Amino acid sequence: MQLYILNNLYITMKSIPSFARNENDNLLFQHLKKLVHEEIRSLDTKRLFWVRLKVFLFPVLYITIYVFALQQAKHLFLFYTCFGLMGAIVVMIYLNIIHDAGHNTIFKTKKANSLLLYLLDLLGANSYIWKIKHIKLHHSFPNVAGWDSDMQQHGLIKLFPSDKTRKIHRYQHITIFFLYPLFFFNWLVVRDFKDYFSNNQPLKKIQKIPLREFIKLFLFKSFFFFYTLILPVVIFGFTFLQTAAALMFMLVTAAIIALAGLLTQHVNIKNDFPLVQENGTLESTWFIMQLTTGNNVHTTNWVMRVLLGNFNYHLSHHLFPNISYAYGKEITAVIKAYSKQHDLPYRSFSFTNALKYHYLLVRKNGMQKEFFQEGL
After folding, report:
1. Residue 372 located in a structural domain
2. How far apart (Å, rounded) are the C-alpha atoms in residues 341 and 332?
3. pLDDT digit string (tens) for 272-292?
4. Is the dihedral of CA 325, 331, 336, 342 positive or negative?
5. Range of the domain at 306
6. Total domain count for the chain?
7. Distances in Å between the alpha carbon of 129 and those of 32, 107, 126?
8. In this structure, is residue 374 part of a structural domain?
9. pLDDT in tens, 214-259
10. CA-to-CA distance for 371 and 135, rounded, in angstroms?
């Protein structure tokens, strides 16, 4: 039997994969967890004020720039510039607000955090699908093909080494420079709808989508395209071509910024891509898999800290997703020291190296022969 057939097996099987059990790994994680919480208790909680301030500041900034853009019918350069800035702010809203609201780390109540998720719907994406995919699939099964739907791509790009190699993948180390900028456009007009209507998506393995979410999908999508495409034409004198170009500039800007941060944390040649075995199990424990499938990016600049929500401290987030990103630096220091002490596979790369390792993975995946060979 070809192992590739086994790879297809976990894509179609309904049972959720289980992790290996190792008492030593469990004790190590419990001890690390204790150290992290002790560190958090020693820190000033006033920094959470700045986290909550962004909940107000970034959406207001987005709306203000949008309103200003609508006044620029005679100054198209400013119009396009504003939409580009809106694209950058979309990423800031996602990383600082939506992402942490999904993990219930901004406000004390789940209801208050859940209300913030509607920001994602107002930005054209779908919060219901995103939360399930991100919390239940990506965080549970990072880099596991068929289950990590945050990272899974289909067709044109092969990111998982275990995926089938197609002829078009031979050139993906070149085509990614044209396809990656379309990431958000694809999310808005293709990916969300596939998650709702295709039975082959990982989401369908774990949850049935309520009818109200189908209605919400179309209502919010329609509203997003109304205020970005139609309203500027009907009321403010822009042509449809001008607004379409501005929207694409916004989406491309957002995609470039977002992917530069997101792809450096998991999908690279230095990280593992675990396979679900024929019996539905994974070979490592949850704790070790989080360490081997992800990495930090060791930069502490102001942009990453203030605008991108400390997203470079990604291992600390995966190990302790219910702790605010505001404590990422301190948690990372504890994890790093603990990993060194216990010989754990902690990884941290520079931003440029992380990008290079991602590119090397893409090139290797595209140029390799069929990953699984007969008789293995």
Report:
1. no
2. 14
3. 999 998 888 999 999 999 999
4. negative
5. 3-367
6. 1
7. 32, 21, 6
8. no
9. 999 999 999 999 999 999 999 999 999 999 999 999 999 999 999 8
10. 29
